Amino acid sequence: MQAVAIIGIGQTKIDEQWDKSIRQIAVEAIHAALKDAGRETADGIFVGNMMSGIINSQNNLGPLVAHWAGLKVPAVKVDAACGSGGAALRSGLMAVASGELESALVVGVEKMTDRSPHEVTAALATAADADYEVEMGVTFIGLSALMMRRYMHEYGWKHADFAPFAINAHANALHNPYARLHHKITLDDFEKSVMIATPINLLDASPIGDGAAALYIVPADSVRGRTRILIAGSASATDTIAFHSRREPLFLAAAYQSATEAYRQAGVGPEDIDVFELHDAFTIMSALSLEACGFAERGQSPRLGLDGSLTPTGSIPVMTRGGLKARGHPVGATGVYQVVEVVQQLLGECGETQVPEARIGMAQNIGGSGATIITHILKRE
Fold first, then answer.
1. Strand ranges (DSSP E) for the chain?
2. Which of 100, 113, 133, 230 is most buried, by CB atoms within 10 Å?
3. How far apart are CA 108 and CA 149, in angstroms?
4. pLDDT in tens, 15-42
5. Strands across the sheet with 229-238, in order?
């Protein structure tokens, strides 16, 4: 298997894009990535998406996007729920690393605001266990509330102790023109926010939106005359789809497994990671991800937020462009946005939220409540 590098990135602003279809949003990101890579086409397209068949009444998304982009190349849709973007990148990576393709475009896209909140919530719930979770009326907010309530009980944290995760995300999003939410929040804002599913309130949760992000990948040896961003580690792991079936409900086993394998491939450990784009769909997921990936002891990750370690100048910067919480969470696109943002950090393009001397970055994308977790580690050379 040959090493693979990212030579082009593209993204759209996450918003309620009433005037654009899902195909238009995807192609906007693709054309930006092609321009950045200095290429006109690619050998294949991998589209990360979760809900086009439900929300947009559009399956067979790969050929649709390829045609609309003016590219007559093989194209497929990859679905791993909210982990679809990361799964699409891993699919494209394996195709290029194996030598089957000389180049690939990876695009994550989701258009979520054309339907009512009730319909979108129901569509998101299809990533849970239909017979034993959805049938009982459980949503992902409800599942995350169960996790958070148990975590607080087990380890003695207060709800306010999770506020730094959201505060940091919003502060960073102010400097990201592609982010959906551009306003600071305070501890007082967090504590007074509307309760959704106790103990999760509105500021614990990420917003949905319409958006697309894209990557152009090639064999690393073909890159000449420019900084190389290598995909040094890539791993995927799965756990039970039903939250109640897990042996350790407060430990993301698939995050641990995929991160451990990605670390091994890249020849690094948690102490070497300069920036970590984690999957902060809810603040409790930030806490669990940090612990599973080795950045904190079990039950102790809120301390990283409270002591400032998670800011762009801290020991382990996270959500440096706003994360899911403030950049927004167009579910099938999120994993690609995360990698685009790590690339920006490694190229020194993040302005006010630039991590000093960032050389190694990690992105972790989660599907469902932890059923599918994909970790990528990038290195600047």
1. 4-11, 45-48, 75-78, 104-110, 195-197, 200-201, 211-219, 229-238, 275-277, 360-367, 372-380
2. 133
3. 32
4. 999 999 999 999 999 999 999 999 999 9
5. 75-78, 45-48, 104-110, 211-219, 4-11, 229-238, 372-380, 360-367, 275-277
Kindly report, residue by residue over 300-346, the tens digit of the pLDDT.
999 999 999 999 999 999 999 999 999 999 999 999 999 999 999 99
Confirm if 276 and 341 have CB atoms less than 8 A apart: no
Would the pLDDT of 225 be above 90? no
Cβ burial, residue 276 (10 Å; 0-12/13-18/19+): buried
Return d(Cα 151, Cα 157) in angstroms, integer.
8
* Known active-site residue 82: yes
pTM: 0.97
Residue reference for tokens 């996450």: 14
Q: What is the dihedral of CA 287, 170, 30, 345, to 10 degrees?
A: -70
Distance CA 85, CA 106 (A): 8
Q: What is the three-class DSSP state of 231?
A: strand
Annotated active-site residue in 159, 170, 279, 329: 329
pLDDT (tens digit per residue) in 202-223: 999 999 999 999 999 999 999 9
What residue type is 99 in one-letter code?
G
| C-alpha span between 211 and 316 (Å, rounded) | 27
Domain 4-117+206-380 has CATH 3.40.47.10: yes
Looking at the chain, how many residues does it have?
381
Q: Which residues pair with 104 in a beta bridge?
A: 217
